[in-house]
Amino acid sequence: MTAPKKNLIYEAALSLVYESNDFSSIKVADIADRAGIGKGTVYEYFQSKEQVIGEALLYMWEQALESFALFLEENEGFKEAYYGFLRNFKMQLGKNRHIYKLLTMNPASFSVPAAIEAFKFRFEEMREKYFALLEKLAARSVSEGIIKDFPSRFDWQTAILSSLTCIYIHQHFPDESPGEEAVLDKAYAVYVKLLGD
Amino acid sequence: MTAPKKNLIYEAALSLVYESNDFSSIKVADIADRAGIGKGTVYEYFQSKEQVIGEALLYMWEQALESFALFLEENEGFKEAYYGFLRNFKMQLGKNRHIYKLLTMNPASFSVPAAIEAFKFRFEEMREKYFALLEKLAARSVSEGIIKDFPSRFDWQTAILSSLTCIYIHQHFPDESPGEEAVLDKAYAVYVKLLGD
Amino acid sequence: MTAPKKNLIYEAALSLVYESNDFSSIKVADIADRAGIGKGTVYEYFQSKEQVIGEALLYMWEQALESFALFLEENEGFKEAYYGFLRNFKMQLGKNRHIYKLLTMNPASFSVPAAIEAFKFRFEEMREKYFALLEKLAARSVSEGIIKDFPSRFDWQTAILSSLTCIYIHQHFPDESPGEEAVLDKAYAVYVKLLGD
Amino acid sequence: MTAPKKNLIYEAALSLVYESNDFSSIKVADIADRAGIGKGTVYEYFQSKEQVIGEALLYMWEQALESFALFLEENEGFKEAYYGFLRNFKMQLGKNRHIYKLLTMNPASFSVPAAIEAFKFRFEEMREKYFALLEKLAARSVSEGIIKDFPSRFDWQTAILSSLTCIYIHQHFPDESPGEEAVLDKAYAVYVKLLGD
DNA sequence: CATGAATGAGACTTCATTCAT
DNA sequence: AATGAATGAAGTCTCATTCAT
Q1: What predicted TM-score, i.e. pTM, was given to this entire model?
Q2: Is any atom of strand E within 7 angstroms of residue D29's beta carbon?
Q3: A76 CB and strand E closer than 7 A
Q4: In order of start, what are the domains of chain C with their CATH numbers?
């Protein structure tokens, strides 16, 4: 029965990560408060504050990857899948605009807990999985003939991250941006333009 | 003659910002050490740690904008100017890969010192100046016929940020990326592809 | 069970107040040391050093008033009550000769913590209670016929404070003063002379 | 020409003593500011903050004693002299109600600078002078027949301090007290009652 | 298991004092 | 003689972590 309590702590920690944009300013007391448990209890499940936050971030990514993988299985066509991917990113970003770095798997975002060697490795693993899924997605665009030649890893990374950047700009400057749905078309177009012949 | 001492502190603070990726983990003692001055001296020039870091970030941007503006004046042609812009970003990113958020003027990066209202305003001002320069740059690509129609603000923002994303990926995964010079061509191509007909 | 720990801190703070005669020179570390607790623990019970000292002074007065009230109830006759009152003052003064201002309820003595508005009010309350008891005491001297007419507030205040002054001088210049018991007679006489016809 | 500068510092320090009621909270920077001189200059004339305040207090007393002595010489009759004495005390107290301890020559008020041995001695000297003058004043009341027998030192000290207490109460509770002039009569009456047969 | 009172290392900040100008 | 920039010792306060209950 420890799993649910750990998750409680993860969710609490993550909600604070979303708000603070600054790992070291997050307080254990706040995590405990938000999780509705005692401060001491946190230390029954984790060794240190660093570990709590590190594990919480990995937990977030595990969840995200799992549902991403599931989603890819359920949606065969590239376009629907890509729109779904964008839509999910948009939603996450809507919850918290500070989270861009985390959502784009920016290694820098793991700099604090990465102090502990174990995290570096586990994060690397996670990134591999993430890129494997993205590659699978990119592969579909080729097999469906939307993109002619299979792009290099560098190229599809650039294309996908640019798509996300497009959505990021939309979130930051909603006034100067196309509508909520139109931005998805824009972002999709970015991918096609960058990888199209 | 207080300006040089203030600058000394700015440089010290910034070098720590580059390293730590986490504002609140920076210690006043470290700033003072790195500036080669006493702890108390920092407080002769600033009211609080928050202010030191906030002002230092603004200082960094002021410097960057100034040299950017100068550079734009000195380089008439779009392509040279754009390559110069990319080269500069690449160099900055080379110094510190955590700094992407700051370099892309991500408002979130200012979230800590922005607690003080004054910072919000000054940062906003800075961003306006930055975008004004970027728009000027984009305008050149139109006047030189490289881009047909003048793009919307949203579109050229997306195009330029995607260019930078391209370089960002290069820095993070140098093994899978084109050479140091080739990446500039790639980044330039991103801009042209996204805004070309 | 936090009350005893708070009281521990009060006693520690007061013993330092007695010694230092200068609020702002009292150190939190000293309070903690003397209370036999950790520095941080003080901040579990109080918000700031100022608050510790302010509350401690109020605590001292609360205690004093309580026992004074009890004493008045137990001693019916004016003379015995008055002697008891003087004796108590003498004893307090014996513990610390700097404390005169505090013992005479001099509002100035509260000037430091009174910076916080709440203290002003609570101190005012305390002073009212104190004067109510003194008035009750004075009233007895009238009802017993020791004093003819009921004196004005100003007059009995002057009389009582002069009594205390008498004891104060005794403490400061023991060589030139009457004996330990004789001074009480002197002080009592001061009261009677000043209010007697 | 150093005398006037020293005096400037004394006046500045004293004005802060009047306001703060707490020696150790007075800052050298404030003294210098108020004296209109540089911080470093203070240390040209004094060795330490403690010394500044200690000397300033002694300076105040020297001034006061000098004018008191002069006043006694100029006013032959006891009653006029006593009223003058009271009036002066009242005026001083009007400037600052925290100063009671200082004005009544309470040794406790010198506790901080008294840490330096030299001060203890000089203060003792000053008190002797002060009491000599008070005794002279008391002697007049006897020689003029207002008081029958020459009172003991303890008795006239009590009488005079009670007079001052009377004025002190007037200052603290003006609403419940007699008028500005009437209080002098009251205070005079206190003296007479306490020492009269 | 769960707690939260207690702790003290360590961070921020102040300010008396120095000293080069 | 006068200054005030620079300093660092020392004080206030925070908060991650422990541990007795």
Answers
A1: 0.88
A2: yes
A3: no
A4: 3-195 (1.10.357.10)
